[in-house]
Amino acid sequence: MKEVVLGIETSCDECSIALVKKIGSTELKVLSNITYSQIDLHRPYGGVVPEIASRNHLETIHFVLDRALRESGVCWNAIDAISVTNRPGLVGALLVGVSAAKAMAYAHQKELYAIHHLEGHSLSVFLDQKLPEIKGPLLVGVISGGHTNLYVVEGNPIHWKKDWFQTNLIASSLDDAAGEAFDKTAKLMGLPYPGGVWIDENARKGDPKAFHFPRALKEKSNLNFSFSGLKTAVALEVQKIREKRQLEERRNDLCASVQEAIVDVLLRKISFAMDRYRCQTLVLVGGVAANSRLRERLASEFRSTDIFSPLPQYCTDNGAMIAAVPLLRSIAPLKQEELLTLNAFSSGSH
Ligand code: KG4
Ligand code: ZN
Questions:
Q1: Ligand 2: distance of its center to the CA of 133 in Å?
Q2: Residue 350: is its pLDDT beyond 70?
Q3: Residue 247 pLDDT more than 90?
């Protein structure tokens, strides 16, 4: 039985390596989780530059690994397996983690697991927190910079089907992801990348009713999301405000109103999905799950629902969630002959 797994995540702009130990059937203790965030490097460009991301992963991964091993107090003998994100993401960035994982698995004779990034996010809720036994059906929302996906699954991840992140998908965004909507509208308002955190921060000082932005696909029959209309509406409003030279004074109201529109849509669709699939438990993961207004409204408007979210440090990309997958799911490691041929894929459908 696997007890300690080393997880590697390099799919985008975070180079993260963690050591995670299983201490109960769905309880995981993070022994170390070291993340080098490249946000400052990409900020001048207003978004992630893939070439910069992969080059920087190459430069930092050794240091991140050294520190993760040192802080965990675990030696190679005590590590049972290595798991690495190999899809979806920026291929050049993913390849750095995949190559490091292959080399380590080969040199230290460890089992190697190739992990879907969203499967990692979904299990991040079990890191460093003991959850009660979850009775299915369970609604899982992965709300991040790249995805706005809803899934209906069993309560315990050990029972989730092999390709559940494809077969159990019940809704997704037709265009921009929720995190992307935060980031793009923040950029329009002159806020730094990644904008979600800044909108969250500035919105606390603003009026969510100051501007009315569109909430697309309102009907109950459609569980999918769409955020591109919101982006266009914000662009037009910001242009008018800029012309009046009022951006500084109206920014907090803009942030609060944009945030309210995104949170409204997320909550409405989650509520429709919970009704339709008779779910009593909700797990919300991904960067946007850290949003304070979303958490506040969930707590007040979903009182009869059991809601679980990861600890804030495990909402955004991290190695611990990737290590969690082989510990909680019954999945097979790569075969010996696949070990050195493992590839990375930009899409999640591999
Ligand atoms: O899960 P994540 O680290 O990366 C992806 O897999 O995409 O999510 C990053 C996204 C970014 O779009 C960022 O703006 C958003 O999560 N985000 C937030 C907050 N913190 C991060 N959005 C809204 N409010 C936040 N507090
Ligand atoms: Zn992510």
A1: 26
A2: no
A3: yes
